[in-house]
Design brief:
The chain has 353 residues and is mainly β. 3% of the residues lie in helices and 42% in strands. The protein is globular, with a radius of gyration of 19 Å. It binds beta-D-glucopyranose. Beta-D-glucopyranose binds next to strand 24 and strand 27.
Protein backbone atom coordinates (compact mmCIF):
# COMPACT_ATOMS: atom_id res chain seq x y z
CA UNK A 1 0.00 0.00 0.00
CA UNK A 2 1.08 3.50 -0.70
CA UNK A 3 0.32 7.00 0.40
CA UNK A 4 -1.89 8.36 -2.36
CA UNK A 5 -3.24 11.61 -3.73
CA UNK A 6 -6.05 11.78 -6.28
CA UNK A 7 -7.45 14.76 -8.09
CA UNK A 8 -11.04 15.21 -9.26
CA UNK A 9 -13.04 18.16 -10.61
CA UNK A 10 -14.87 20.27 -8.00
CA UNK A 11 -17.05 22.60 -10.08
CA UNK A 12 -15.90 26.11 -10.83
CA UNK A 13 -15.15 29.32 -8.96
CA UNK A 14 -17.52 32.30 -9.36
CA UNK A 15 -15.19 33.65 -12.10
CA UNK A 16 -15.39 30.36 -14.03
CA UNK A 17 -11.98 28.96 -13.01
CA UNK A 18 -12.23 25.16 -12.81
CA UNK A 19 -11.68 23.87 -9.28
CA UNK A 20 -10.21 20.59 -8.08
CA UNK A 21 -10.65 18.43 -5.04
CA UNK A 22 -7.60 16.44 -3.89
CA UNK A 23 -7.93 13.32 -1.76
CA UNK A 24 -4.91 12.41 0.36
CA UNK A 25 -4.80 8.98 2.00
CA UNK A 26 -2.20 7.57 4.34
CA UNK A 27 -1.52 3.94 5.31
CA UNK A 28 -3.33 4.31 8.65
CA UNK A 29 -6.74 4.96 7.13
CA UNK A 30 -6.77 8.72 7.44
CA UNK A 31 -8.31 10.65 4.57
CA UNK A 32 -7.98 14.41 3.97
CA UNK A 33 -9.76 16.26 1.17
CA UNK A 34 -8.53 19.67 0.11
CA UNK A 35 -9.75 22.00 -2.62
CA UNK A 36 -7.69 24.67 -4.34
CA UNK A 37 -10.58 27.09 -3.68
CA UNK A 38 -9.48 28.87 -0.48
CA UNK A 39 -7.08 25.99 0.21
CA UNK A 40 -10.04 24.55 2.10
CA UNK A 41 -9.85 21.21 3.92
CA UNK A 42 -13.35 19.94 3.16
CA UNK A 43 -13.11 16.54 4.88
CA UNK A 44 -10.90 15.00 7.54
CA UNK A 45 -11.59 11.34 8.33
CA UNK A 46 -9.83 9.98 11.40
CA UNK A 47 -10.21 6.72 13.36
CA UNK A 48 -11.77 6.38 16.81
CA UNK A 49 -10.63 3.95 19.53
CA UNK A 50 -12.24 1.04 17.59
CA UNK A 51 -10.65 2.10 14.32
CA UNK A 52 -13.92 3.52 12.95
CA UNK A 53 -13.51 6.59 10.79
CA UNK A 54 -15.54 9.77 11.15
CA UNK A 55 -15.27 13.06 9.34
CA UNK A 56 -14.28 15.47 12.13
CA UNK A 57 -14.47 18.87 10.41
CA UNK A 58 -17.25 21.12 9.16
CA UNK A 59 -17.52 21.58 5.42
CA UNK A 60 -19.62 21.17 2.32
CA UNK A 61 -19.80 18.59 -0.50
CA UNK A 62 -19.92 21.21 -3.26
CA UNK A 63 -17.96 24.43 -3.76
CA UNK A 64 -20.91 26.85 -3.94
CA UNK A 65 -21.64 27.23 -0.20
CA UNK A 66 -18.00 28.23 0.28
CA UNK A 67 -18.46 31.22 -2.05
CA UNK A 68 -20.56 33.23 0.41
CA UNK A 69 -22.23 31.46 3.35
CA UNK A 70 -19.32 29.63 4.89
CA UNK A 71 -17.91 31.02 8.16
CA UNK A 72 -14.38 30.19 6.92
CA UNK A 73 -14.95 26.41 7.30
CA UNK A 74 -11.58 24.65 6.83
CA UNK A 75 -10.06 27.59 4.97
CA UNK A 76 -6.67 29.19 4.72
CA UNK A 77 -6.84 32.67 6.22
CA UNK A 78 -4.83 35.70 5.13
CA UNK A 79 -3.27 38.10 4.79
CA UNK A 80 -4.20 38.76 8.39
CA UNK A 81 -6.03 36.15 10.47
CA UNK A 82 -8.29 37.62 13.16
CA UNK A 83 -9.27 41.25 13.59
CA UNK A 84 -7.62 44.60 12.90
CA UNK A 85 -9.50 47.40 14.65
CA UNK A 86 -11.37 49.59 12.12
CA UNK A 87 -9.21 47.93 9.45
CA UNK A 88 -6.73 50.72 10.02
CA UNK A 89 -3.13 51.00 11.21
CA UNK A 90 0.00 53.04 10.69
CA UNK A 91 2.91 51.49 8.87
CA UNK A 92 6.22 53.36 8.47
CA UNK A 93 4.43 56.68 9.00
CA UNK A 94 1.64 55.98 6.53
CA UNK A 95 -1.99 55.22 7.46
CA UNK A 96 -3.27 52.05 5.78
CA UNK A 97 -7.00 51.42 5.40
CA UNK A 98 -8.16 47.85 4.77
CA UNK A 99 -11.68 46.81 3.87
CA UNK A 100 -13.98 46.31 6.87
CA UNK A 101 -16.13 43.20 6.89
CA UNK A 102 -16.95 42.51 10.55
CA UNK A 103 -18.93 45.46 11.88
CA UNK A 104 -16.45 48.35 11.79
CA UNK A 105 -13.44 46.00 11.83
CA UNK A 106 -11.34 43.94 9.42
CA UNK A 107 -11.57 40.15 9.92
CA UNK A 108 -9.60 37.29 8.36
CA UNK A 109 -8.09 39.19 5.43
CA UNK A 110 -11.30 40.92 4.31
CA UNK A 111 -14.33 40.03 2.21
CA UNK A 112 -12.18 38.35 -0.46
CA UNK A 113 -9.42 37.05 1.75
CA UNK A 114 -7.29 34.00 1.00
CA UNK A 115 -10.28 31.79 1.86
CA UNK A 116 -11.98 33.02 -1.33
CA UNK A 117 -9.20 32.89 -3.88
CA UNK A 118 -8.13 30.10 -6.21
CA UNK A 119 -4.73 28.69 -5.29
CA UNK A 120 -2.37 26.93 -7.67
CA UNK A 121 -2.04 23.36 -6.48
CA UNK A 122 0.78 20.88 -7.01
CA UNK A 123 0.70 17.37 -5.49
CA UNK A 124 3.93 16.40 -3.74
CA UNK A 125 4.49 12.67 -3.47
CA UNK A 126 7.05 11.41 -0.97
CA UNK A 127 7.92 8.06 0.60
CA UNK A 128 6.98 9.14 4.10
CA UNK A 129 4.32 11.73 3.38
CA UNK A 130 1.88 12.85 0.76
CA UNK A 131 1.26 16.52 0.21
CA UNK A 132 -0.34 19.36 -1.64
CA UNK A 133 1.53 22.58 -2.23
CA UNK A 134 -0.66 25.63 -2.76
CA UNK A 135 0.61 28.96 -4.07
CA UNK A 136 -1.00 32.34 -4.49
CA UNK A 137 0.15 35.79 -5.53
CA UNK A 138 -1.71 38.43 -3.56
CA UNK A 139 -1.31 41.64 -5.56
CA UNK A 140 -0.38 45.05 -4.21
CA UNK A 141 -3.56 46.72 -2.96
CA UNK A 142 -5.62 43.54 -2.63
CA UNK A 143 -8.19 44.06 0.16
CA UNK A 144 -6.24 47.25 0.91
CA UNK A 145 -2.92 45.57 1.82
CA UNK A 146 0.34 47.07 0.54
CA UNK A 147 2.81 45.06 -1.54
CA UNK A 148 2.78 41.99 -3.75
CA UNK A 149 2.81 38.99 -1.43
CA UNK A 150 3.86 35.59 -2.75
CA UNK A 151 2.37 32.98 -0.46
CA UNK A 152 2.65 29.23 -0.34
CA UNK A 153 1.05 26.73 1.97
CA UNK A 154 2.14 23.13 2.01
CA UNK A 155 -0.15 20.46 3.48
CA UNK A 156 1.61 17.18 4.30
CA UNK A 157 0.02 13.97 5.65
CA UNK A 158 2.06 11.06 7.03
CA UNK A 159 1.29 7.58 8.39
CA UNK A 160 1.38 8.77 12.00
CA UNK A 161 -1.92 10.58 11.29
CA UNK A 162 -0.13 13.90 11.38
CA UNK A 163 -1.16 16.75 9.13
CA UNK A 164 1.61 19.32 8.89
CA UNK A 165 0.82 22.76 7.49
CA UNK A 166 3.79 24.91 6.43
CA UNK A 167 3.35 28.54 5.49
CA UNK A 168 5.76 30.74 3.53
CA UNK A 169 5.50 34.28 2.24
CA UNK A 170 7.69 36.99 0.76
CA UNK A 171 6.77 40.57 -0.11
CA UNK A 172 8.05 43.55 -2.09
CA UNK A 173 6.66 46.13 0.39
CA UNK A 174 6.16 46.08 4.14
CA UNK A 175 2.82 44.46 4.97
CA UNK A 176 1.15 42.67 7.89
CA UNK A 177 1.02 38.88 7.52
CA UNK A 178 -0.71 36.50 9.93
CA UNK A 179 -1.67 33.29 8.17
CA UNK A 180 -3.70 30.56 9.79
CA UNK A 181 -5.98 27.62 9.19
CA UNK A 182 -9.64 27.79 10.12
CA UNK A 183 -10.75 24.18 10.59
CA UNK A 184 -13.87 23.66 12.70
CA UNK A 185 -13.47 20.42 14.64
CA UNK A 186 -15.94 18.05 16.20
CA UNK A 187 -14.10 14.88 17.15
CA UNK A 188 -17.37 12.95 17.55
CA UNK A 189 -18.25 13.84 13.95
CA UNK A 190 -21.43 15.73 14.94
CA UNK A 191 -23.42 17.03 17.94
CA UNK A 192 -22.33 19.60 20.50
CA UNK A 193 -18.67 20.16 21.36
CA UNK A 194 -19.44 21.19 24.94
CA UNK A 195 -18.43 17.72 26.16
CA UNK A 196 -15.01 17.79 24.43
CA UNK A 197 -12.11 18.03 26.86
CA UNK A 198 -9.55 20.69 26.15
CA UNK A 199 -6.09 21.56 27.35
CA UNK A 200 -4.45 24.82 26.24
CA UNK A 201 -0.84 25.41 27.19
CA UNK A 202 -1.24 29.06 28.12
CA UNK A 203 -0.94 31.06 31.34
CA UNK A 204 -2.36 34.17 29.70
CA UNK A 205 -4.94 35.25 27.15
CA UNK A 206 -5.87 38.41 25.25
CA UNK A 207 -8.96 40.07 26.79
CA UNK A 208 -11.35 41.61 24.27
CA UNK A 209 -14.08 44.24 24.10
CA UNK A 210 -17.61 43.48 22.88
CA UNK A 211 -16.38 43.73 19.24
CA UNK A 212 -13.65 41.17 19.97
CA UNK A 213 -10.88 43.78 19.71
CA UNK A 214 -8.07 43.36 22.26
CA UNK A 215 -8.22 45.54 25.38
CA UNK A 216 -5.12 46.98 27.02
CA UNK A 217 -3.16 44.31 28.83
CA UNK A 218 -2.83 40.54 28.62
CA UNK A 219 -4.67 38.73 31.43
CA UNK A 220 -3.81 35.71 33.55
CA UNK A 221 -6.06 32.66 33.15
CA UNK A 222 -5.63 31.83 36.86
CA UNK A 223 -8.95 31.40 38.69
CA UNK A 224 -10.96 32.10 35.54
CA UNK A 225 -12.97 29.93 33.10
CA UNK A 226 -10.08 30.56 30.66
CA UNK A 227 -7.74 28.27 32.57
CA UNK A 228 -7.34 25.13 30.44
CA UNK A 229 -3.86 24.26 31.72
CA UNK A 230 -5.41 21.08 33.06
CA UNK A 231 -8.25 19.38 31.15
CA UNK A 232 -11.73 20.88 31.34
CA UNK A 233 -14.70 20.29 29.11
CA UNK A 234 -15.53 23.18 26.82
CA UNK A 235 -18.99 23.45 28.39
CA UNK A 236 -18.04 23.27 32.05
CA UNK A 237 -17.64 27.02 32.62
CA UNK A 238 -18.74 28.55 29.31
CA UNK A 239 -21.98 30.01 30.70
CA UNK A 240 -20.74 31.15 34.07
CA UNK A 241 -21.24 34.85 33.39
CA UNK A 242 -17.57 35.91 33.21
CA UNK A 243 -17.40 39.31 31.52
CA UNK A 244 -14.91 38.06 28.90
CA UNK A 245 -17.18 35.15 27.98
CA UNK A 246 -20.02 37.65 27.59
CA UNK A 247 -17.86 39.75 25.24
CA UNK A 248 -17.00 36.71 23.12
CA UNK A 249 -20.45 35.09 23.26
CA UNK A 250 -18.49 32.14 24.69
CA UNK A 251 -14.83 31.41 24.06
CA UNK A 252 -13.51 33.52 21.20
CA UNK A 253 -10.11 34.49 22.54
CA UNK A 254 -6.48 34.38 21.63
CA UNK A 255 -4.32 32.47 24.11
CA UNK A 256 -0.70 33.46 24.70
CA UNK A 257 1.10 30.15 24.44
CA UNK A 258 3.74 29.09 26.94
CA UNK A 259 6.80 28.42 24.81
CA UNK A 260 10.12 26.87 25.65
CA UNK A 261 11.63 28.90 22.80
CA UNK A 262 9.77 31.17 20.43
CA UNK A 263 10.73 29.52 17.15
CA UNK A 264 9.99 25.93 18.22
CA UNK A 265 7.09 23.78 17.17
CA UNK A 266 5.57 23.25 20.61
CA UNK A 267 2.41 21.70 22.01
CA UNK A 268 -0.33 24.33 22.08
CA UNK A 269 -3.52 22.39 22.73
CA UNK A 270 -4.97 18.92 23.20
CA UNK A 271 -8.60 18.25 22.35
CA UNK A 272 -10.22 14.95 23.38
CA UNK A 273 -13.67 13.56 22.80
CA UNK A 274 -14.34 11.01 25.56
CA UNK A 275 -16.83 8.69 23.79
CA UNK A 276 -14.94 8.12 20.56
CA UNK A 277 -11.55 8.47 22.26
CA UNK A 278 -10.38 10.70 19.40
CA UNK A 279 -7.63 13.10 20.35
CA UNK A 280 -6.18 16.04 18.48
CA UNK A 281 -2.81 17.38 19.54
CA UNK A 282 -1.95 20.70 18.02
CA UNK A 283 1.64 21.90 17.80
CA UNK A 284 2.64 25.26 16.43
CA UNK A 285 5.45 27.73 16.00
CA UNK A 286 3.01 30.60 16.48
CA UNK A 287 2.89 32.61 19.72
CA UNK A 288 -0.89 32.33 20.05
CA UNK A 289 -3.94 30.25 19.40
CA UNK A 290 -7.47 31.55 18.91
CA UNK A 291 -9.97 29.29 20.67
CA UNK A 292 -13.41 29.88 19.18
CA UNK A 293 -16.24 27.74 20.55
CA UNK A 294 -18.53 27.97 17.53
CA UNK A 295 -20.73 30.62 19.15
CA UNK A 296 -21.93 32.01 15.84
CA UNK A 297 -23.01 28.66 14.41
CA UNK A 298 -26.80 28.64 14.57
CA UNK A 299 -28.00 25.59 12.65
CA UNK A 300 -28.65 27.55 9.45
CA UNK A 301 -25.85 25.73 7.57
CA UNK A 302 -25.85 22.07 6.62
CA UNK A 303 -23.09 20.13 4.95
CA UNK A 304 -22.09 16.50 4.48
CA UNK A 305 -25.40 15.44 6.11
CA UNK A 306 -24.74 17.37 9.30
CA UNK A 307 -26.47 20.50 10.55
CA UNK A 308 -23.95 22.94 12.01
CA UNK A 309 -25.67 23.93 15.25
CA UNK A 310 -24.76 26.35 18.05
CA UNK A 311 -21.38 25.28 19.51
CA UNK A 312 -21.46 22.22 17.27
CA UNK A 313 -17.76 22.62 16.36
CA UNK A 314 -14.78 24.58 17.60
CA UNK A 315 -11.72 26.22 16.11
CA UNK A 316 -8.15 26.26 17.39
CA UNK A 317 -6.36 28.69 15.11
CA UNK A 318 -2.59 29.06 15.51
CA UNK A 319 -1.66 32.68 14.91
CA UNK A 320 -0.20 35.95 16.14
CA UNK A 321 -2.37 38.09 18.38
CA UNK A 322 -5.32 40.08 17.02
CA UNK A 323 -4.81 43.71 16.06
CA UNK A 324 -1.02 43.43 16.28
CA UNK A 325 -0.42 46.14 13.61
CA UNK A 326 -1.91 48.58 16.17
CA UNK A 327 -0.14 47.04 19.14
CA UNK A 328 3.62 47.66 19.34
CA UNK A 329 3.54 45.67 22.62
CA UNK A 330 2.51 42.47 20.74
CA UNK A 331 4.88 40.25 18.71
CA UNK A 332 5.59 41.78 15.31
CA UNK A 333 3.43 40.82 12.31
CA UNK A 334 5.00 43.13 9.71
CA UNK A 335 6.86 41.33 6.92
CA UNK A 336 9.42 43.39 5.04
CA UNK A 337 11.10 42.97 1.63
CA UNK A 338 14.06 40.58 1.90
CA UNK A 339 12.52 38.71 4.86
CA UNK A 340 10.78 35.34 4.67
CA UNK A 341 7.64 34.59 6.61
CA UNK A 342 7.81 30.92 7.61
CA UNK A 343 5.73 29.12 10.18
CA UNK A 344 4.39 25.62 10.78
CA UNK A 345 1.56 23.95 12.63
CA UNK A 346 1.02 20.23 13.11
CA UNK A 347 -2.29 18.46 13.77
CA UNK A 348 -1.72 15.00 15.23
CA UNK A 349 -4.75 12.72 15.47
CA UNK A 350 -4.84 9.72 17.79
CA UNK A 351 -7.37 7.59 19.64
CA UNK A 352 -7.35 6.49 23.29
CA UNK A 353 -9.59 3.89 24.88
C1 LIG B 1 -13.29 34.39 15.11
C2 LIG B 1 -14.76 34.51 15.37
C3 LIG B 1 -15.47 34.52 14.05
C4 LIG B 1 -15.11 33.27 13.29
C5 LIG B 1 -15.63 33.29 11.90
C6 LIG B 1 -13.05 33.13 14.37
O1 LIG B 1 -11.71 33.02 14.06
O2 LIG B 1 -12.55 34.42 16.28
O3 LIG B 1 -15.06 35.69 16.09
O4 LIG B 1 -16.83 34.64 14.20
O5 LIG B 1 -13.73 33.17 13.17
O6 LIG B 1 -16.86 32.82 11.78
Amino acid sequence: MELTIEQEPFGQAPDGTPLSLYTLRNRSGMVVRITNYGGIVTELHVPDKHGNLADVCCGFESPEPYFKDSPYFGALIGRYGNRIAKGSFELDGKRIQLGVNNGPNHLHGGEQGFHRVVWQAVPVVGDLSIGLKLSYLSKDGEQGYPGNLEVSVHYELNDANELLVRYHAVTDQATPVNLTHHAYFNLAGHGSVLGHELVINADRFVPIDAEAIPLGALASVEDTPFDFRSPHTVGERIDDGHEQLANGGGYDHCYVLNKPESAMLSLAAVLREPESGRVLELYTQEPGIQFYSGNFLDGSLTGKGWQYGYRGALCLEPQHFPDSPNRPDFPNTILRPGETYATRSLYRFAAQS
